[in-house]
Amino acid sequence: MNETLRIQQAHRSIRSYKADPVSDEMLDQIIAAAHQAPTSMNAQEISLVVVRDAERRARIAELSGGQTWVAQAPVFITIVIDFHKTELGVRKAGQTQVIHESMEGFGVAAVDAGIVLGTLITAAESLGLGIVPIGGIRRNPQDMIELLQLPPLTFPLVGLCIGHIAGDAPKKPRMDIKTFRHDERYDTSGYAAAIDVYDATLIEYWQQLGRSDGIAWSQNLGASLKQVYFPQVRPVAAMQGLLNDK
Question: Residue 188 pLDDT > 90, yes or no?
Fold first, then answer.
């Protein structure tokens, strides 16, 4: 196994950070790696907003639902869907951009944002830093837009905490890889049994950590996915000009 694979397979989310700053050199290397991430049609419709200011990070922590590690980590990067940037290019070519008004547009931008996020994660972890992705910025997207002064045709999709690790965390167990990898065709035959096993495994994991509030995977999904947990995404995206009616 090479070093890149070792780092990726050892991934765990870190929610405890030292006060030590991330050096400019480290941060520049991480962002340079993500800058090279592929995007559909080479549209490059992703932008990053890097926040190191403590007051801004504290505000983002609040907007994300009180996630204290956002304020604690010395670097917070917001990954932004950016059809404002592409619209300038389309207009220069004498055309009218419509992709931002479609489900395809939002979907492809979300894919590209995910690729950028994964690249940031691997780059940061390769330098010995800890990370945790923050989807909670979609809880209050309008406030995030105002805080980061994002223009129309943009949307703050996901964030990432980066910092030096203060308290490490064990790897969280995953469901059987057979529920993830399907060869030649999709096969659900083992799902029910795999979910039962994973529910028990996850409860044992929480108990080993002394987490009395830890619940089974299926229970967690039942509590979360029975609702649209960030209902402001659609209306705020629409106000930003990112529609899904085409």
Answer: yes
| Residue 163 backbone phi and psi in degrees, to 5 | -175, 175
Q: What is the pTM of this model?
A: 0.97
Residue 128's φ and ψ, nearest 5 degrees, are: 85, 10
Domain 3-170 sits in CATH at: 3.40.109.10
How far is residue 57 from each of residues 71, 74, 209, measured CA to CA in Å? 5, 8, 28
- For the chain, the structural domain boundaries read 3-170, 171-226
What was the pLDDT predicted at 245?
86
Give the tens place of pLDDT for each residue, 205-217. 999 999 999 999 9
- Chain-wide mean pLDDT for the chain? 97
- Residue type (1 letter), 164: H
